[in-house]
Amino acid sequence: MLPMRKKTTESLVRPPLFSSIVYTPEESIDVMKYLYQKKDKTWGDYGFYDAFSETENWYPQQYLAIDQGPIAIMIENYRSQLLWNLFMQHPDIQKRIAANL
Questions:
Q1: Can you tell me the distance from the alpha carbon of 20 to that of 8, in angstroms, rounded to the nearest whole number?
Q2: At what angle do helices 82-89 and 91-100 cross, to 10 degrees?
Q3: What angle do CA 60, 61, 64 make, to 5 degrees?
Q4: Any idea what the Cα angle at residue 45 is, between residues 8 and 30, rounded to 5°?
Q5: For 34-91, what is each residue's pLDDT tens digit?
Q6: pTM above 0.85?
Q7: SS3 for 7-66, per residue?
Q8: Biggest CA-to-CA distance, the chain
Q9: DSSP letter, residue 70
């Protein structure tokens, strides 16, 4: 059994903050701007670091490569809806939509 933590940290993980841009554009863009203002702690050679906690003064200088794909896809969907439109045009998706109407 895992030990219970007595104290939780208020860590923020960047990918969900950025990937939710299509649902919460104003808030997501505000977070991006805020983190960029703190780039001495949140930004490195390859862009924003993966996570941080202001309350714990915790700013690990690490990246998680698997998180970059969803961020890029969702920002592009917010910007142009390209990937959603391509997905919706696929014949299998069109068949499924037609079957549910």
A1: 24
A2: 70
A3: 95
A4: 55
A5: 999 999 999 999 888 888 888 889 898 998 888 888 899 999 999 999 999 999 999 9
A6: no
A7: CCCCCEEHHHHHHHHHCCHHHHHHHHHHHHHCHHHHEECCEECCEEECCCCECCCCCCHH
A8: 53
A9: H
